[in-house]
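Help! Submission page says 'invalid entity' but I think these are all valid:
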Amino acid sequence: MLYQLEGSQAVARAIALCRPEVVCAYPITPQTHIVEGVGELVRSGQLKNCQYLNVESEMAAISVAIGSQAAGVRSYTATSSQGLLYMMEAVYNASGLELPIVMTLGNRAIGSPLNIWNDHADAMSARDAGWLMLFAENNQEAADLHIQAFKIAETLRLPVMVCMDGFILTHAYEKVDLPDQKEVDEFLPPYKPAFSLDPKDPCAIGAMVSPEYFMEVRYMAHRRQLEACSVIEKVGIEFSAKFKRNTGGLLRTYHTENAETVVVAMGSVLGTIKDTVDELNHTNGNGKFGVLSLISYRPFPDKEIREALKNAKRVIVVEKAFALGRGGILAREIELALKGLDIEIITVVAGLGGRIITKTMLTEVFQQPKGDLIFLGLREDIIRQEYKTVLDQRGA
Amino acid sequence: MSSLTMGNRFGQHTSVQSSSNRPNTLTSGHRACQGCGEGLAARCAIDAAYTAAKGKIAVVNATGCLEVVSCAFPDNSWNVPWIHSLFGNTAAVASGVAAAFKNKGQTDVRVIAQGGDGGTTDIGMGCLSGMFDRNDDVLYICYDNQAYMNTGVQRSSATPALARTATTMPNSQYNGSDPETGKNVPDIAMAHGIPYVAVASVGNIHDLERKVAKAINIRGAKYIQIHCPCPLGWGFPTAETIRIARLALKSGMYPLFEAENGVLVGSTPIEDQIPVEEYLRVQKRFAHLFGKRAIPENIGILQKIANNNIKKYRLGGM
């Protein structure tokens, strides 16, 4: 059924449709409306049979989810930015313990300086934590990805982080089609844990592992990440067959077939990118530009990306995070996927800390990129002035 | 056998440990040091909880000595559902376990969180306070050996005044742990107004078992702190663990008491109080208080702490 909803409310309702049994809430902007929304659904009785815990920190939020999932029930929480960093020790722990927790990450910059607005620095900090990481392009996809996430997580016994851009998605009102409970129940069967804390059949979870076994454990975790590609794809196909919508999967292509330049990005900026590419193709009249929307960042679908980009002459990666002193993060991974192909790769770092990304800015950089690492809309005047001060202070 | 025989005669004094039906929740063969107070306390506490809860318990363990000695893959010493997550999040993991059992309608499964003093009073304090705040249905047991033993005897906020640790080494300028530092976590637990708080000791196993058995069937948040002498960290022969624990009790350095809903309801009286010196002299961690450079006032500082305990927790009788 169609609703006009804030992104966070759409996600809260999608979560409720998945019947989590334990939800833990700790406020952090811009994720807060999601856990508020779930709490409201619990208190109003719309989400039955669910324990809703107000916890004292993000570390507690993820730890409660670890405990409840280990005791055999479907568990959910949400966070953003500093909150993800604060819980990071337990983020690694959850994947190591093979607990299929689903968590929303309302993407936000990481300070200092303090900044509550959107970029992807928080998600990038968790890229090696062993979680599957899916990026939503719009609120419909954000809602749908959560329903798919529980199924993917529980199939693989791996936690899934659903990333949605803070404010741009979490606070935006859009038309969202939410399935009814019966349909979701048919798609997502009740959670059956592979192991749990059960007095009738005791097991020990979370052993100390010595050098003789540790590499094998980590290698198995790596293998499961690789296997996740086919599971994500399969669940996406099942979802679209049932709900008649193409959301989820590993990636989506847009006019890439004959494109000379393909733009790669994740998240909400893809809407602006597609509009820009439409205009460029219309003006030029030759369809020179295409777009690759990356949904699954972890696992990273090398094979599918290579297949989609192999005929391009130039790939422009627009990313909302970068490695200080090094450059693009996503771009380096794309480069690895395209190894050996004669394709120029350009990194466009854009939208840090909520900096606006306009069609005008994108049009210019797509047509005439200057250099292979571009900071979109960087205010050179401020940089020149500030750098002069820095040099003066150093006495250089 | 002798204790079993005694048990037959004085039924009401039988301990879980002397029973031939002892559940052995923590089996022999684990890797704790000889004379480990924590291993003994954990076995007694979890056995008592298991018996009182008719076998329906689940245990969450903090990182630390108890964890590393009992779960080094491929071995496992626990005969109960058991999970280790991290060092500082044990209370929160237990809150999650309790929430799951509550939602499944299995509130007969009693949830225990356990950790050392470092994992409880320092790095785990935030999650512990959160668990108290929500009054989650968890019994948290802190095995207090008064320093970070697993990492090599560093000071924690439970380290007693003037004790030597690897990070409070006495020298000509310093006398062990600063007597102006430290925190009283049983008091902090009481300040949360939770249903039950108790302090126990391996020097009094019957009392320890009774408190655990009582706590495990109380609904809501419970906290028990158990004094666990550590031969390695404190510096005493491995056969002396129980004797040292009893000297702590008799000197007033470790008051045994119970509190309900934030109010002191009972304490274990000291029958024949000994000077703290008798407790301190037998441990190398206090050796600097008696050497050539000894400052007589230092013993007075510790005697004052013991005297205050006796007064505050009514160890002279309620």
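Support: the input was valid. A stray whitespace character was the problem, and the output above is from the cleaned input. Chain A touches chain B through 43 residues (CB under 8 Å).
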